[in-house]
Design brief:
Blueprint lengths: L2 H31 L11 H22 L4 H8 L7 E8 L2 E3 L6 E4 L3 E8 L4 E6 L5 E7 L5 E6 L4 E6 L12 E9 L11
Parallel strand pairs: 1-4, 3-9
Antiparallel strand pairs: 1-2, 4-7, 5-6, 5-8, 8-9
Helix pairs in contact: 1-2
Protein name: Cytochrome C oxidase subunit II
Keywords: Membrane, Transmembrane, Transmembrane helix
Organism: Persephonella atlantica
Amino acid sequence: MTSTDVLWALKIVYTIYAFSIISFVGWFAYRITKKPESYKTWLTPKVFYTYLAILVMIGVGIHILTYNKIPWVAWELKKHKIKPDRVFNITVENHQFILPEETPITIKCGEVVKFNVVSRDLTYGFGLFRPDNTMVFQMQVVPGHNNELLWQFHEEGSFYVLSTEYSGPKGARMRVPDAFKVVCNKNVSMGVGR
């Protein structure tokens, strides 16, 4: 299952969950605004708190069941055991990304890549996006820290870098078109297995 599939499934699950919470809030608003003379309903405090408990259990259950389905969560939990195939040290300063090589930087499918991004002044975002503007991943880049992210690419194509954090008016123009190009070879192993 690709990260796109996982994200679509999570969108559906969380949309259903959000509608459940909205219905809960709507019911609460209806109940407290209802005139006392017509206050006769099956929606008792017992039902209210039971529904609240069910929502809490569903929310916690969704997080427990899906935490390992989101690709970057598994990487984050295991990153101290994973040796990357390549490391890209990227600097951000004066609203500009300084990449270690001339773009596009070519990456092979299946390679484990470590992005180490350092900011020398402000807090920025480091997001990688597909040409159709869907996000592959992003992380916050805090000054004074090594901001690291491991990733294994499974899809071929060109990707651009965009700052995903507000860093002043100039931050909106922080984009590196065709920053990375991923090339897939059928013989390349796609499993993490490290």
